[in-house]
Amino acid sequence: MTLSSPAPHMSPDRSPALRRGDAVSRGRVSLVIHQIRYEQLSFWRNPQAVIFTFLLPVLVVTIFGAVFGGDERQDFYFGLSGMEYYTPTIAAVSVLGACYGQLAIVLSTRRQTGMLKRLRATPLPAWVYFVGLLAHCVLVSLIDVVLVIGVGALYGVSPPTQWTTIVLTLVLGAASFCALGAGVASLVRSAESAPALVQFIQFPLVFISGSYFPIHAGVLNTVAGLLPVKPFNEAMLASFTHATGYPWKELGVLAAWGALGALVAVRRFRWDPRPE
Questions:
Q1: Is the predicted pLDDT of residue 200 greater than 80, yes or no?
Q2: Measured distance CA(98)–CA(140) in Å, rounded
Q3: C-alpha to C-alpha distances, 209 to 6, 216, 223, 240, nearest whole angstrom
Q4: How many Å apart are CA 170 and CA 191, to the nearest integer?
Q5: Any idea of the CA torsion for 76, 81, 83, 85, to the nearest 10 degrees?
Q6: Alpha-carbon separation of residue 132 from 28, 36, 76, 94, 154 (angstroms)
């Protein structure tokens, strides 16, 4: 009497479908990392972009430190010293420039030169390209903020204690300004006009939002509070003034502007150059 052979032992390993899913996920992560590395290499190989992005905020906060370096707190700075006020606001300006300004100009230039059109013809998914750009801008912003905080520390400014608040503020602010930069880039007709349009929007916002001097006019503060820069400034200030809790109102305004920028970018973004 022959006995039937026992059933083969089933391996406890995961099913082939799950393993394929893991491989696909790892492939997507590798693509994103590769795109971030490409954006970083492109940035660091452009000395002018590096110098302007990092040197300007450091230079501004250094000059402000020489002028307002005293530790005396004043009502003019809402109970802060000059450098306690300017360190977070200049850090906020550096994030704005690295995300909104730089991204809008880069996308406009790449579209006009045909780089985006060629990229669209490759197998690289569009979402990987934009996630890589976003992560690159966040990394540049973090370096900028660390440099500005370092200069502020030389003038006696205590580093922020609410690190979860400042990280959340930086990531949300960088993402929102990147979305706004992509939205503006979708409206720009040529690379030559991109810097002018970017600065035309950025400079008034920076000044009415109290980035370079406090604003005490109630009506102007109310209007600026509905725009993205002032809420970002206030959220950064909250991280440095040892305020407890999260500035949900300011973060909500930032998120709303980021959603608006993303909506405009999705509806109006073009990969190919506009016809002359």
A1: yes
A2: 7
A3: 77, 11, 9, 18
A4: 28
A5: -50
A6: 12, 5, 41, 20, 34
> What residue spans of the chain are helical by DSSP H?
16-44, 47-67, 82-96, 102-112, 115-120, 126-154, 163-187, 194-208, 218-225, 229-240, 248-268
Burial (0-12, 13-18, 19+ Cβ within 10 Å), 30:
exposed
* CA 216 – CA 259 distance, rounded (Å): 29
Q: Which two tokens stand for residue 133?
A: 């750009």
d(Cα 232, Cα 77) in Å, to the nearest integer?
Answer: 17
The answer to whether residue 13 scores a pLDDT higher than 60 is no
Amino acid 239: pLDDT: 82
- Residue 215 is classified by DSSP as -
Q: Phi and psi dihedrals of 194, rounded to 5?
A: -60, -50
Amino acid letter for position 102: Q
What is the spatial distance between Cα 265 and Cα 159, in angstroms, rounded to a whole number? 36
Distance CA 260, CA 266 (A): 10
CB 86 within 8 A of CB 57: no
Q: What does the domain layout of the chain look like in residue ranges?
A: 28-268
Tokens of residue 96, six digits: 């704005």
Matching residue, tokens 């905080």: 149
Distance CA(45)–CA(28), nearest Å, equals: 26
**Residue predicted with more confidence, 27 or 215:** 215
